[in-house]
Amino acid sequence: MVLLQACANMAAPTGGAYDVDPPKVRQAKPNFNSLGASPSKIEIEFDENIKIKSPAEKVIITPPQQILPIIRSVGKKAVVELKDELKPNTTYTIDFTDAIADNNEENPLENFVFSFSTGDQLDTLSISGKVLAAQDLEPVTGTYVGIHSNFDDTVFTRVPFERISRTDSRGNFTVRGMAPGKYKVFALNDQNRDYKYDNPQEAIAFLDSIVIPSSMSAVRQDTVFVDSITIDTIRTVQYTRFLPDDLVLRSFQSDFQRQYLQKHERTEPHKLTLYFAAPTVMPDFSLLQPEVSNDNWYVTERSAGNDTLLLWITDSLIYQQDSIRMKINYTRTDSLNKNYIDTDTISFNIRKSARDKREQKNDEKKDGEEAEKEQIRFLGITSNVQSTFELFNPIRFEFEQPIVRFDSSFVRLEMAVDSLFEPVPFRMERDTLNPRKLTIRPRWEPGGKYKLTVDSALLISPYGLWNNKYEQSFTVKPLDQYGNLEVNIVGLPEGKVVFVELLDKSDKPFRKSFVKGNTVRFQDLQPGEIYARLVIDENRDGVWTTGNYEDKRQPEMVYYYPGKWMIRAYSDHMEEWQINTVEVIRQKPLEITKNKPEEKKRRDPNRDRNNQQQNQQSSPFGSSGSRGFGSTPRM
Fold first, then answer.
1. What topology is assigned to 261-349 in CATH?
2. In whole angstroms, what is the distance from residue 579 CA to residue 561 CA?
3. What count of Cα atoms within 13 Å lies in the side-chain half-sphere of residue 255?
4. Is the distance from CB of 398 to CB of 382 less than 8 angstroms?
5. Of the residues 364, 477, 633, 634, which has the fewest C-beta atoms closer than 10 A?
6. Which architecture does CATH list for 381-477?
7. What is the pLDDT of residues 443-496, one digit of tens each?
8. Alpha helices, H only, 191-238
């Protein structure tokens, strides 16, 4: 007998071929498309263990469920427990979208839908489209899209949707399981999950037209890949196309905002600040403690919508008081979303701690000689002036505190002519909202050298501060550092007021100009890439205006130029913009789209195996056998 001996080769296992396929359905209970079914639990079994990712966000059950269902994975099964009582003669659809994936490689099962009917007929029609934000054409993610077959104007505000869908990362939606008929379509950012528009702070969209779902036979080209870049075959596939599939809903939030006094504070003895929850009319107020005989005790600083109100107390007898009481009449919104005038009494207190009081006594003990050594604190002044100044900019001043008096004689603006500085005329404007701001508008000479001066001790605040001397020399940019833009716009509606906003790379507008005779012009633009948005100004107020469902008013229409313009210095640019050539859902350039779609990448199994082999060769211990190491994301 011959005995043979050999040492075992301790090579690491390769783990076999990579799994790149999504789970496959084996069976379902009840069966797919069952009729006369009334299950409280649906179980769908797959050929491998699965997981359900973000079921509350991705899984849509329609008709909408008032009581949240339980959706979970158990080994190879997807389990859905319905808590609502099922409606008779109704098609139920569970749209898993891409929530189901295998447990190991997380290969998603795309567009997976389960349907059954409690009656003797299964409704199979569907409609689809896209939801965009009306103001900036951003794709709206995670908003509900629902339908009503009742056309009463109040149904949207009183009755839950009959069937629903939810938008994905691209703003796309599909409402499934629809019966033949006529419908109105809505979008709703449902904050309280009752599937109806009962909160004016919810963003909505609505179509003016009636939608009639239908279907037709169609063909498409399907591409089969060997790997992520190699095409195997291109097949022609027949399928049923459901229409309409190109609906566009423009989402907006109404201009309603709940109004109330949010808070009030006194951070300094001479400053009272009131914060309101939303823009409001100017409130009416009066002092109760201390009593005053007139309204000359304060200077008002406010925001554009009066939602922030700051009162600078100029009467020293008042701001020296530790406690101030005020009666105020302001707009408030009740539980029925109606505004009324509320009257309230509020207190502003300055409480000094024991430490503050001790420090105050110590300060009072300082003799005059020490007080003289203290550094003088001047009134703060800021401006937008820099050593190189833009040709189209005015000069803007802002002071730390309100000032007792200010006029144009306090400011000297001079331009260098030969070796001398000569005075330059300008127009001075006081800010209508902020008494600490003012604007100086001269006629700039391109390339000119200027000097701006405010002499010391000319500006005095009510609190005893005065200004130090302010002086700034600067040069205005020459014309050859700017470009000009003229755009001829095609496709505008007749008789409408239209304006165009130029946008930076963050989609923020920085210049605006009105269209005249189908042409819009911008002068003195800084070189660089710019984008553009156009607004049809229906109410001619110069700003974009939102919609209103109660008035059946759509938000003002917005268009984006589908590309960008490169502005070059010392150049005149002539461009054409045909606003309807590119459909609205594809107009906004991806570079300035904030809500960029989630991209799904196709896994390359050959690359995965190569990466694993390389890792085995480079490691003295070989591979741990964990699958997916070094793999690339799937398409």
1. Immunoglobulin-like (2.60.40)
2. 7
3. 13
4. yes
5. 364
6. Sandwich (2.60)
7. 999 999 999 999 999 999 999 999 999 999 999 999 999 999 999 999 999 999
8. none
